[in-house]
Design brief:
Blueprint (H helix, E strand, L loop, with lengths): L19 E2 L5 E5 L2 E5 L12 E9 L2 E3 L3 E4 L6 E8 L8 E7 L6 E4 L3 E4 L5 E10 L5 E12 L7 H71 L4 H29 L6 H16 L5 E5 L11 H21 L4 E8 L3 E8 L14 H11 L3 E6 L5 E8 L12
Parallel strand pairs: 6-12, 13-14
Antiparallel strand pairs: 1-2, 2-3, 4-5, 4-7, 7-10, 8-9, 8-11, 11-12, 14-15, 15-17, 16-17
Helix pairs in contact: 1-2, 3-4, 4-5
Length: about 400
């Protein structure tokens, strides 16, 4: 080998054999460049492993000769260039390298004298390279350089800890909001169930009180009609009473059907039913009923109990006008704004003194019903100047799911 002193790696033969051995044991070889003599008894010199030198470090293709690298946050392409110092057989030098913190084992580089790293995440590293000769001896001291890739702000622990705590707080707050909404929906469901149960109780009570009493009266009058069949005057009186009781029963049944009919839980339905009831109540009684009602009302839903109490209060005012006012004309007017409803029942009858205590329970019941809904009743009347009953209720804001209460 040329690295071991051979003048040429090609031997020749001709007048001389390809190799000779002398008496002393020396080996002679003819080559193109001359005679090579080898002493096989001479001990082989132990060749030390080559020294390693880091020639250059490239960051994104730009050379950097610093002993340690401190790089800005972001993606960087690193390349380390090195060499091994061996004057006996430099072509036989082999290299191994590793980037401590990224590589867990040594990387065999062979005779390559560069180590590329297309991407190095943030952190602290140390590049190490060692070299060995052809005899398998390695210079473990090698060469090294430290590398620090700085993190972005959001990659630092002092950012991540508060961010993690903030995220946990957001998750906890979100869970609290979700649970609160579930609880709110559950309370609404329970309130609806309670309102439904209350409405069922009211319907059962109305069926028992109104229809039951009317039917019992009809049954009693029918029995009297049979008993007084020989008295024409009594028969006529009983028939009139039976007819009146039947009319009352029909109206009571209509009210119950309207209260439970789907689609009746709106302000528009309430005003339309009040108009229907007023027309039927004053039909054929000699009293003219004039209606001043808006054609289009706000699309505001009304719970069954609120709707029923409003109707009963207006019904009481209309019934009082029919029975006690001795009026020629009754006016029913309704006005609705965004958050209030006002219904006025006005007659031109004989009126009364509002300072005098009423003997009946009608006005008191009317006031209690309206006040229970958070409203107010104003009654204006003077003897000989008619009566005006004004019912005013304020509505709560309509929630996002579309239900409202008075």
């Amino acid at each position: 080998m040329a690295a071991e002193g051979m003048l040429s790696e090609e031997c020749i033969s001709g007048f001389f054999p390809i190799g000779l051995r002398t008496k002393s044991g020396m080996l002679w070889f003819p080559t193109q460049e001359g005679i090579v003599v080898a002493d096989p008894h001479h001990p082989t010199k132990e060749i030390p492993p080559p020294s390693v030198v880091l020639e250059d470090t490239l960051v994104d293709g730009v050379p950097n000769a610093a002993d340690s690298l401190r790089l800005a946050p972001g993606q960087h392409r690193l390349e380390f260039r090195y060499t091994g110092l061996n004057f006996d057989a430099p072509e036989r030098v082999r290299f191994q390298y590793r980037l401590v913190g990224l590589d867990s084992v040594w990387v065999e580089a062979g005779s390559s004298r560069s180590a590329p790293f297309p991407y190095v995440p943030y952190g602290e590293y140390r590049f190490e390279v060692i070299a060995g000769n052809g005899d398998g001896r390695w210079n473990t001291a090698g060469a090294s350089v430290s590398v620090i890739v700085q993190p972005y702000l959001w990659q630092t622990w002092w950012f991540r800890v508060p961010a993690s705590l903030g995220l946990l707080a957001v998750i906890a707050l979100t869970a609290r909001v979700v649970e609160k909404r579930k609880l709110h929906r559950r309370l609404e469901q329970l309130e609806q169930e309670r309102a439904l149960a209350h409405e069922r109780e009211r319907i059962a009570r109305d069926l028992h009180d109104d229809l039951g009493s009317s039917l019992a009266r009809i049954s009693l009058l029918s029995g009297l009609l049979k008993a007084d069949r020989d008295n024409p005057h009594q028969i006529e009186s009983h028939a009139v009473k039976i007819s009146q009781s039947a009319d009352q029963t029909v109206r009571a049944l209509e009210e119950i059907v309207w209260a439970v009919r789907p689609g009746s839980d709106s302000l528009q339905s309430l005003v339309e039913y009040i108009a229907h009831f007023a027309n039927e109540l004053f039909d054929g009684g000699g009293i003219h009923c004039r209606l001043d009602l808006p054609a289009d009302l706000p699309p505001r839903p009304l719970p069954p109990d609120i709707r029923h109490n409003i109707f009963l209060a207006v019904k009481e005012a209309l019934t009082n006008a029919l029975k006690h006012a001795a009026a020629r004309e009754v006016l029913v007017r309704a006005e609705a704004s965004g958050d209030a409803l006002e219904i006025v029942v006005q007659d031109d009858g004989k009126g009364f003194d509002t300072n005098c205590r009423s003997r009946g329970n009608g006005l008191g019941n009317m006031r209690r019903r309206v006040q229970a809904m958070g409203g107010a009743v104003a009654i204006e009347s003077r003897p000989g100047q008619g009566t005006s009953v004004r019912l005013r209720l304020h509505f709560a804001p309509v929630p996002a799911h579309g239900k409202a209460a008075a």
